[in-house]
Amino acid sequence: EYTGMSKERMMEIRRKNCNPMIMKVTSYKKPVFIHQGHMQWLWDVDGKRYLDLFAGVATVSVGHCHPKVTAAAEQQLKRLWHTTNIYVYPPLHEYCEKLASYLPDPLKVVYLTNSGSEANDLAMLMARLYTGNFDIITFRGSYHGGSPQTMGLTSNAAYKYPIANGLGCTNTMCPDVFRGPWGGSHCRDSPVQTIRECSCAQGYCMANDQYIGQLKETFATSVPSRIAAFFGEPIQGVGGAVQYPKNYLKEAYKLVRERGGVCIADEVQTGFGRTGSHFWGFQGHDVIPDMVTMAKGIGNGFPMGAVVTTPEIAASFAKGVHFNTFGGNPVACAVASSVLDTIKEDGAQQNSLNVGTYLMTELAKLRDKYEIIGDVRGKGLQIGVEMVKDKASREPLPPEAMSEIFEDIKDMGALIGKGGVYGQTFRIKPPMCITMEDADFFLAIFNKSIHNYMERR
Ligand code: PMP
Predict the structure, then answer these.
(1) Ligand 1: does its nearest atom lie under 6 Å from the Cβ of 295?
(2) Does residue 262 have its Cβ closer than 6 Å to ligand 1?
(3) Is the CB–ligand 1 distance for residue 63 below 6 Å?
(4) Dihedrals phi, psi of 231, to nearest 5 degrees
(5) pTM for the predicted model, two decimal places
(6) CA 144 to centroid of ligand 1, rounded, Å
(7) Is 274 in the pocket of ligand 1 (CB under 6 A)?
(8) Cα(202) to centroid(ligand 1), Å
(9) Quick check: CB of 57 below 6 Å from ligand 1?
(10) Which of 178, 183, 271, 279 could hold 375 in an S-S bridge, CB 3.0 to 4.6 Å?
(11) Cβ 116 under 6 angstroms from ligand 1
């Protein structure tokens, strides 16, 4: 039972002493006061239970307070809290070797950070030093961080400030087969296809060609002939689980490398088994990046991030000194190491595939039933449900309507996220321990919330 600070008092402190921006992002009209978590469940201070389908933004990978991971943290806390990379200590080395074993050659050199923004900052720096070039390309609608450098990679006005940020970053058209002009219904790697007309003939995808054409136009119009890097999430996270035509990344990587750039996969949301079919999102695109950046799920909620790159790129970076006090902290390493073991022991990746595919298949039935569900997409437990005014116009469902449904779902006991450039996409990315019964529990709630909204409308 909760006997701590009152809700009113917390709100008062929040108004006075906390980052007020949090208030805007916390878009529930009646806030949720979380007290405790276990696996896929959260409890508020009144003892009400919620099925957590957002996992702190795809961050709690194996489950809240997972007993095995908690035990690993406890053990390390008793032995050694902190030392730095100046010294050689076991947890760091055990973890770097283990993490590297999950990546294909030549991705074998690990840098540990404390967040995703920090990992992407480091990747930007390394790419520029290694290539000797400056310009970096990312997708519109992407989120890669909130630091002044990574804000330039991020392409979503909601997260931008009017300062000189991320100089040398250019955003190119996102190859979004639902919202984009060219459609493409069978060319994305998801159990659910779009409702858009298919322009794909056998072995040829017109939409893909058009989107690659846009990338070529970005090269021709907006950057010098030599570039430093291309950043792409295998499936957009904050952007709303946006997926690209199957061959897009493969062709884009080739074009980027022809221009001297390195290819960087931001796996902050898609890594660690979340996409189900593969451990890393990039594997679903049949590419091998030159750098992979990670955070969130890497520590099951423990603050941590990483960049993994090739020995060649690492060598060029080793010419200077890069130091990070907390990067590779022993407790973080022990936790992350246990997370890797737990994903394997719990069969979390396979569960992501099974439950995620089931969820999407059932959600697609609701899409066919309701005019305001425009698209269901994703892979594994990285799922987006894009809401529209109507299927013909594909105009985003307005924020007030999104909020009403969002609030209703919360009141019925499930927490999901919102995203997309217009805030029009519901995001489902639960801890990977979620069960089929949980999926049914959510599907009933989601159906009811849309039904309620349609009745009110
Ligand atoms: N990359 C992606 C894909 C993300 O979703 C995020 C966070 N939403 C980041 C990077 C930044 O991570 P952090 O908040 O840990 O800095």
Answers:
(1) yes
(2) no
(3) no
(4) -105, 135
(5) 0.97
(6) 5
(7) no
(8) 37
(9) yes
(10) 178
(11) yes
For 127-145, what is the mean pLDDT?
A: 98
Mean residue pLDDT across the chain = 95
Task: Tell me the two tokens of residue 95.
Answer: 């973890």
pLDDT digits (tens, 9 = 90+) for 23-54: 565 579 899 999 999 999 999 999 999 999 99
Contact 238 CB / ligand 1 (< 6 Å)? yes
Residue nearest to atom 12 of ligand 1 (CA): 116
Two structure tokens written together for 347? 């069969």
Q: How far is the CA of 391 from the centre of ligand 1 (A)?
A: 31
Query: Is CATH 3.90.1150.10 the classification given to domain 7-53+347-456?
Result: yes
pLDDT score for 22: 65
Task: Give the closest residue to 414 by CA, choosing from 396, 438, 383.
Answer: 438
With a 6 Å cutoff on the Cβ, whether 423 touches ligand 1 is no
Alpha-carbon dihedral sign for residues 215, 220, 223, 226: positive
Positive or negative, the CA dihedral 399, 402, 404, 410 is negative
Strands 204-205, 229-232: pairing kind: unpaired
Give, for ligand 1, the residue of 59, 138, 154, 268 to mutate: max count of ligand atoms closer than 8 Å to Cβ: 268
C-alpha 151 to ligand 1 mean position (Å):
11
CATH number belonging to domain 68-345: 3.40.640.10
Rounded to whole angstroms, the Cα distance separating 112 from 402 reads 37
Which residues are CB-neighbours of 110 under 8 A, at least 6 positions away? 95, 96, 99, 100, 306, 307, 308
Predicted confidence (pLDDT) per residue in 408-445, tens digit: 999 999 999 999 999 999 999 999 999 999 999 999 99
| Residue 163 exposed, middle or buried by CB count within 10 Å (0-12, 13-18, 19+) | exposed
Q: pLDDT value at position 197? A: 73
Tell me the two tokens of residue 120: 């992407």
Ligand 1 mutation target, pool 144, 298, 324, most atoms within 8 A of CB: 144
The tokens of 214 are what? 């846009």
Q: Where are the domains of the chain?
A: 7-53+347-456, 68-345
Mean pLDDT of 85-100: 96
